[in-house]
Specification:
By secondary structure, the chain is of the alpha/beta class. 42% of the residues lie in helices and 13% in strands.
């Protein structure tokens, strides 16, 4: 097993399905025309563009002309927030979001604050859930937009989107959701959920990198984000990435057809993983909601352990995972999400995110758990804090090990 790479970082990106890659190939070499051209060679590209739009609309329960293709989920988030702040400036300058959003939303909000926009960053509870009463209390006459992610990319918690959408609709406020982690993983109907704008990205559901979408409900006054051409009904300039859109469409179509089966399999494996870790590794905890979470997400914290060290040792064992610490970006700060749910710095630093896919097997989970057990034990053996903790526990309990 150690000679095989076990990929458990599907929240970061996913493997492109073979059938997705094959669907894209003709649009590099045969149907390579520019979809904006009028000659016949462009016909295949135009048809593929519309087909991709229709597939996305089918997954979201909206019209094809409400789908706009972008370069990624981060672009979609930027577009939704910046354009809304500009278009609805006459109505107000207040936006509500949460402290656990993806940085594509948080950093955009911070930029908007420098432009004079007022932003309320809502707290969440210990499971990462938005408190609806706090959201309601934050609404002002000048509130123009609520932006709350569908599901958190780190801890997997799924927010009460239906209730948030209903509250926004009741007060005449636009509702945007970053659904990058949820699109293609769980059912989403924008009408039922009262969603006005939604961001998604292809590479989270076995599609290619470099293509995303923004759903904009008809009637929402969102202006162009990129200028220089009439593409995407004059709202997003730039030659369309037809191969990417074809791949996105194929991946979304497969995701829709397999969603129920995949969710059942991943949920079963996820719960098995969670149970083994919490039962077999002392001083560990699950981060996020146990039930209201994405099918393939498991996020743990281990006391007296550094997440960075775990990742290195897991990689040596052939396992790809991620940590809640931002060390790879040059920061020593722990995850803003873990801090927002109330974890102290020292525990937040010892976090590990494992995210599954339809390809993950029980054998891989068993091997991973065994490796985590060994790694945690080794790292704790080197920790003076753990040694002091254990000695203190033994003294308190007459020599017995203090195990949670």
């Amino acid at each position: 097993m150690s000679n095989k790479v076990i990929y458990l970082d599907n929240a970061a990106t996913t493997r492109v399905r073979r059938e997705v890659a094959e669907a894209m190939l003709p649009y590099f070499t045969e149907e390579y025309g520019n979809a904006s051209a009028i000659y016949s060679l462009a016909g295949g590209a135009k048809e593929a563009l519309q087909n991709g739009r229709d597939i996305m609309a089918g997954l979201l329960g909206c019209a094809g002309n409400e789908i706009y293709f972008t370069g990624c989920g981060s672009e979609s988030d930027n577009w939704a927030l910046k354009a809304a702040a500009e278009a609805y400036r006459a109505k107000g300058n207040h936006i509500i979001t949460t402290k656990i959003e993806h940085h594509a939303v948080l950093h955009t909000c911070q930029w908007l604050e420098k432009q004079g926009v007022e932003v309320t960053y809502l707290d969440v509870d210990e499971q990462g859930l938005v408190r609806l009463e706090q959201l309601k209390a934050a609404i002002r006459p000048t509130t123009i937009l609520i932006s709350v992610m569908f599901a958190n990319n780190e801890i997997g918690t799924m927010e009460p989107i239906r209730e948030i959408g209903a509250l926004a609709r009741e007060h005449g406020i636009l509702f945007h959701t970053d659904a990058v982690q949820a699109f293609g993983q769980v059912p989403i109907d924008v009408d039922e959920l009262n969603i006005d704008m939604l961001s998604a990205s292809a590479h989270k559901l076995n599609g290619p990198k470099g293509v995303g979408l923004l759903y904009i409900r008809k009637g929402v006054k969102i202006r162009s984000f990129m200028h220089g051409g009439a593409q995407e009904r004059k709202r997003r300039a730039g030659t369309e990435n037809i191969p990417g859109i074809v791949g996105f469409g194929e991946a979304a179509k497969i995701a829709a057809a397999t969603m129920q089966e995949r969710a059942a399999k991943e949920t079963k494996l996820r719960d098995y993983l969670i149970e083994r870790v919490l039962t077999e590794i002392p001083y560990s905890r699950l981060n996020g909601c146990r039930t209201k979470r994405l099918p393939g997400n498991a996020n743990f914290s281990f006391q007296f352990v550094e997440g960075e060290s775990m990742l290195i040792m897991l990689d040596m064992a052939g396992i790809c995972a991620s940590s809640g610490s931002a060390c790879t970006s040059g920061s020593l700060d722990p995850s803003h999400v873990l801090l927002a749910i109330g974890l102290p710095h020292e525990i937040a630093h010892g976090s590990l995110r494992l995210t599954l896919s339809h390809e993950t097997t029980r054998e891989e989970i068993d091997y991973t758990v065994e490796q985590i057990k060994e790694i945690v034990a080794k790292l704790r053996d080197m920790s003076p804090l753990y040694e002091d903790f254990i000695k203190g526990g033994q003294e308190r309990q007459g020599g017995k090990k203090n195990v949670q």
